[in-house]
Amino acid sequence: MMQISDSYNQKNSLFNAMNRFIGAVNNMDQTVMVPSLLRDVPLDENGDVKAPRPANDTTPAAAAHCTTCFHQDADMYSSYVLLKSIRNDIEWGVLQGDGRGKDRAGVTEVSRVEAEEDDLEKQFRYHLNGLHTVLSKLTHKANMLTNRYKEEIGCGN
What we know:
It is built from six helices and no strands. The chain is mainly α. The longest helix has 33 residues, at 120-152. 13% of the residues are buried. Pfam families: Spot_14 (PF07084). Its main location: cytoplasm.
């Protein structure tokens, strides 16, 4: 009985979630031979490919159709680059020289003060759960992008 419980807990461990994400991104990276083909292929909220909005179409229906065009990952190419960047950050750590460390300096000091005042175990569990959720979503996104690329180039599963 203990072995079943342990394997379930291992399956849901952060380490395994990171390995699943890294594996999905590695698979995506090996599958996508021409990343430039991903440019201008937008994704909707569900991760489905949708047709690009014509530049001269300013109707409200067209604007509603293209709500994700203004998001950071509006097309498959930017999602591809983002997923690879996150994978590199997980594998190699976040470099302080890339500018992101400076933006977080103020947040780190505030977090340090809060950590002394609040229950550290509660904060740890909250952030661990959030990280696990985000990694699961990113893994799904990498797998979806890989499958979409295969469809785009005509190479089915």
